Amino acid sequence: MAAYGLYSHIRSNRRKSLALLIGLFLLVYVLVYAGALAGEALSVNADLDTLTQLAWNDFLSAAPIATLGTALWVVIAYFFHQSMIDAVTGGRAVTRTQAPRLYNILENLCISRGITMPKLKVMESDALNAFATGLNQKQYSITVTSGLLALLDDKEIESVLGHELTHIRNGDVRMMVIAVIIAGVISFVAELVFRLWFYGGFGLRRSRSDERGGGAGLAILIAVALLVVAYVLSFLIRLALSRSREFLADAGSVELTHNPDAMISALRKIEGRGELPGATSAVMELCVDNPREGFGELFDTHPSVESRVEALIKFAGGHDPGPIALPPPGEANSAVEEPAAAGPWSGDAGETGPWSDTGGPAGRNTEGVGGSPSGPPPAGQGDSSSEPGPWGPHRGG
């Protein structure tokens, strides 16, 4: 994708996101009015017009309190959201000494592009995922899983970090964190009102329905409908904010790294392996990929990996290797830590396997596959050593 196209998309996306965020905030007032309408219907015997007017007066009185409460919620989350996320995910800050490979990749990427380096965190999980958080330059951080570090190579990790840096640079992280905070208010209020109605006031409503005629019952139905609409719209707004940004973050990663193939292979490895145990839906919405699916992708927070790969092929000229099979996390870690072990994930005779940097040092034949011409082969190597195996030159044992 051309730079002009990318940046024009970013500007357009920011305008749309701001409008969606304003709409999300307005839904708080819809909830306040719905609560006022339900409260009047449960306490006053009147027709629908009278109840709606009374509810409007209540709304005007409660709106400043709702605004102050929502603002207070945002302020609290502003200072403590990272601590809450770390408590849920178990992410811990790391330094260059603790994670030199990861730290150097991120630092080099930031220096080469003139980007302020965010904090770096690692969470212990076999899942393959990463996410960025923060509301300003001092708070921004990128968290990656230990599983991602074990199974992705340096170029792929660089692409994932570039993806998250793009989210930070474009203001996506700040926008999504605020959206999640406000949506949390909506979800909390909606659930609270529903619980009060159906567990506390249901019997009262039913006993008084005959006395009040259709006005109270209709007002309650309207209030319920407003609550449902506000709740669903808050979720759909979060989807709109998240889905459009993933395509732009993929494109931004390619712009940073100049390596669309690495971004594609990273997505293929992460595909279906990103579930973070114990993480809330709000945290999963911030991740590179969210494997939690809705109804036929209708309520998925992220576009499918397939569609993201297709976009990278179309606009960035990448190549798709297709779905990638990976070893179980335990085997992958063993292959990285013990490269001398023979097997399909490490080189047997000086040949490197796809998950190890070096082959096994013991028993290498530097004279040729047939063994030393001046004597018998070393113990443990048979005469069939001249036959190459499927992973490189093979020695019988």
The stretches of 5 or more residues where confidence is low (pLDDT under 50) are 1-5, 202-210, 334-397
Evaluate the radius of gyration. 28 Å
Strand content: 5-15%
Distance between the termini: 53 Å
The average pLDDT is: 76
Sheet with the most strands, sense and barrel status: 4 strands, mixed
Strand order of the largest sheet: 1-2-4-3
| Main structural class | mainly alpha
- Count of discrete domains: 2
Shape: elongated
Distinct helical segment count: 11
Helical content stands at: 55-70%
Extended strand count: 6
SSE string: HHEHEEEHHHHHHHHEE
Can you give a write-up of this model?
About 60% of the residues lie in helices and about 5% in strands. The chain is mostly helical and about 400 residues long. It has two domains: about 1-325, no CATH class; about 325-365 and about 385-395, no CATH class. It has a four-stranded mixed beta sheet with strand order 1-2-4-3, sandwiched between helices. A hairpin with a 2-residue loop joins strand 5 and strand 6. Helix 1 (about 5-45) packs across helix 2 (about 50-90), helix 1 runs antiparallel to helix 7 (about 215-255) and helix 2 (about 50-90) packs parallel to helix 7 (about 215-255). It starts with a helix and ends with a strand. The relative contact order is 0.11.
